Amino acid sequence: MQALREAISGFRADGVAIAAWSLCAVESRRSSLGVKDRQAGNAHYPLRIADSSGARYRLVWEDGLVSRGHLERAQLDSRAEEALRVARSAAYDDPDAARVLGPASFPEVEMHDAETARAADGHPGRTAPRLDWIRRRIEELGFRTWSGSFSAVEASSRVLTSAGLDVRGESTSFSWHVSVNGEIGNGYSARRPEEEEAFEGRMERLLRTARHLEREAGPMRGDLHPVILHPRVVEAYVLETLLRNLSGATVFHGEGRFRREQFGSRRPALREDLALRLDPLRPMRAGSYRFTSDGLPASPCTFIDRGCLVRPILDLKYARRLGLPPTPLPSSMDALFLEGPNPLPLEAALERAGEGALV
Fold first, then answer.
1. Which has the closest alpha carbon to 281: 339, 328, 246?
2. What pTM was computed for the model?
3. Phi/psi of residue 294, each to 5°?
4. pLDDT tens-place string over residues 170-179
5. Are residues 29 and 46 in contact, defined by beta-carbon separation less than 8 angstroms?
6. Kind plus residue range of the DSSP H or E element containing 164
7. At a CB cut-off of 8 Å and minimum separation 6, what does 255 contact?
8. Per-residue confidence at 355, pLDDT binned at 50, 70, 90?
9. What letter would DSSP give residue 166?
10. Spatial separation of the C-alpha atoms in residues 339 and 303, rounded to whole Å
């Protein structure tokens, strides 16, 4: 990134220099293996080990225009000035986006796992025995086919600004996903692998659900019938809907359910047993981090409490537009905590459904 910094310091386009800037650089190594219809590592899904690097930038020009974008490794190393010329040609007027952060205190968060780092270098680690376990159980239960993916990543990141911010971090990511009969799947993602007992338990729950889906559905009489939403469906639907409506951009433009004046009010906008919190400081979660790509320190944050809207999800731009402080940003569902009615176990839900449907 040194070449890019040097280019920024002396660069001018149309007689205009760069007044302020923010860079977020990431370098990573990833190993991945795919399984398609029982076949692991075939020509379509081979074992891959890949290195990558790049940087996102925000440039604030002397005339107030802003440029944002992403640079690949070659542009960082040898084509920095060319990239800056392209950035200038795409500059736009947005005073609320013309903000870079200065130095701050950052929390310590456990995000790096040595075992996962070795797996990112290509060590088979837990993947080989887990492949054997899945194959054995699929064969024992007589399922037609299965597919999946396994990956491990080690990454380093750095946020640097013209205002004096310079913060670095290292992290790992481990993930897998398995689908059965092309109908239903489950998986796991975190900074390190779960223990074998947890892996097998998650897989057994998937296999039980897949077995339910093999049952022949009888005719349904014309009447009202219960519909049971699988937890994955609830997570995807409820959380995605809430996050979209809580987005600062959605609130500012009036494109969602919530309005600016509702935040901070004691009047519930949702059912009163509902709460939504973010905690990126939890160790080894996929959604844990020390700082955002803008250099904002991570911290726990409550968006909804007892049905009341506490604050929107705000990056620097929309925090300024709405006149509120910026918030940490969700990066993965496992750092979000949705509190609501008492959970209903799947087996109890299926019994209660009777002739209903599982989605």
1. 328
2. 0.89
3. -90, -10
4. 999 999 999 9
5. no
6. none
7. 249
8. low
9. E
10. 12
